[in-house]
Amino acid sequence: MKRHWFLELGSFLIIGQLVVLVAFGLPALSELSTIATFLTTSCAGILFMIGGIRRQFKRVTWNQLVGTADFLLGLLFLLSVVFPLWNIPMSESSIRPLLAVAAIGGIMSLMLIGIDWIRGCHYSNFSSYEYDPIHSRR
After folding, report:
1. How far apart are the C-alpha atoms of 37 and 24, rounded to whole Å?
2. At what angle do helices 62-77 and 96-119 cross, to 10 degrees?
3. How do residues 8-27 score in pLDDT, each as one tens digit?
């Protein structure tokens, strides 16, 4: 996987946010969860785009940008998936604990991958994300 895919992922997140804004309009200020979701997804998209374009932005390397974006998406999923599960009355859903455990497992893996990338990727290999010789000449 080449690093330019992060540019495309970030573009997809930003375009998706713009489509939602055009389709449904600006959220009301009273809808803090919607505003937080929009801002978190937009920040993650921008970080993915910068990480996909540049090897280093000021003193921050591309893997730290992408790791921060992963962590933000994990945090977003935590706030938008796990917390609403606890608001479901127990009589309506007996599968709620299973859903919560599955969601927390996926969210924690995404957040831990982000932390690993921020720290310098001690448990992953960056070589598959580096540009090949054709792209490095640009």
Report:
1. 14
2. 170
3. 889 999 999 889 888 887 77
